[in-house]
Amino acid sequence: MLGPPAIELDGQPTRSPRGRKAWALLSYLLLAERPPSRRHVAELLFADADDPLGALRWTLAELRRVLGGTVTFVGDPVTTAVGDGIAVDVHGLADPDGDPAPLLALDGELLEGVSLPACLEFESWLLVARHRVSATLEARLRQTAVALLASGAASEAVGYAARAVARNPLEEGNHELLVRSLAVAGDRAAALRQIAVGEDLLRRELGHEASAALREAANVGPESAMVTPLSGRAAALSQMEAGRAAIAAGAVDAGLQCLRRAVTEASRAATARYKGGRSVRSGVPLYTRYGGGTTRGQLSWRRRSIWPAGPVTGPRRSPRTGCSASSRCRPAGGVQPRRGWPRPSRWRRPTPSWPRSSAYGG
């Protein structure tokens, strides 16, 4: 589905379905979050036909002939089932623990070259789906490169970092990851060339200079490969940036995986300020907003898992209540409540008891 769509058997192209709408229907059914109704699919792709439902039945029959029963489409709503031994490239992106090697072979956008100008609703869906799949692939490439760097396989990380740059050349974090991979792999000259390329690209396309972090990434050497060059703060920042980009593009599941890894790396960081500050301000709000849960128990659990144990130097505490001046207006969990939550009664001002007056019948 990525790049020009094709069906392959043992690595060789086989017969493809006839017509662009057949590919559009196949991709829509494979990527749908829930089985769509036949009427909805008919209106989405065959609204201009004399018999939309009949056109849908004919196209489904064409897909069955081509796929030979390896992928089935049954019922109303249409339930799609992929048989054993059948691999769909876009489905492999959703497994963060899968083999990352096939990622290097993925290129192009979703359904490249397929366009249905007469089906505006489908075109809108395809635009969003392309953006989401591209962001998911970029996040997987970054995750794999970071993991390989952390394990000391810098030479292998270069390939994944380079693919991330190719997918999104305007993201400075991708250039920084590639520069670091090249430097740790021992190719400092290539790392310096990549810095020049990244700085020139960001200056021409975005109109701003690259940050100092891009040049600092070239300061590591091959001797740093076995001491996990991207661990702690650096790994957390990289995972956090990848998670933010994926969620902004609609790839929520991949983004949440990145944010979970960022929180894990932040908990291992050496400085309590980073663990209790940046990860809570950046990671937890996103995790809460996009499906991480909003109950007070979950918020309290995340606070305990992120903030360091033991006493932390802070403002002076009251000898009577044991609370600091900055925490007297906070709930016990240490996280500010979301808007709309009921405030505890102790935060409310007491209702003033107005003096009774005979002028008002008192």
Could you characterize what this model shows?
By secondary structure, this protein is mainly alpha-helical. Among the domains are: about 1-85, Winged helix-like DNA-binding domain superfamily/Winged helix DNA-binding domain (Arc Repressor Mutant, subunit A); about 125-225, Serine Threonine Protein Phosphatase 5, Tetratricopeptide repeat, CATH 1.25.40. Helix content is about 50%, strand content about 5%. A two-stranded antiparallel sheet has the order 1-2. β3 (about 70-75) and β4 form a beta hairpin. α10 (about 235-250) packs antiparallel against α11 (about 250-265).
List strands and helices in order, with pairings.
Elements: E1 8-9, E2 12-13, H1 20-31, H2 38-45, H3 52-67, E3 71-74, E4 79-82, H4 89-92, H5 120-150, H6 154-167, H7 172-184, H8 188-206, H9 212-216, H10 233-248, H11 252-267, H12 272-276, H13 278-292, H14 296-306
Helix pairs in contact: 1-3, 2-3, 5-6, 5-7, 5-10, 6-7, 7-8, 10-11, 10-13, 11-13, 13-14
Beta-strand percentage? under 5%
Total of helices:
14
How are helices and strands ordered from N to C?
A: EEHHHEEHHHHHHHHHHH
Mean pLDDT: 76
Major sheet characteristics: 2 strands, antiparallel
Shape: elongated
Low-confidence stretches: 225-229, 270-321, 323-338, 344-348, 353-362
**What is the helix fraction of residues, given as a range?**
40-55%
Number of strands: 4
**Spatial order of the strands in the main sheet?**
1-2
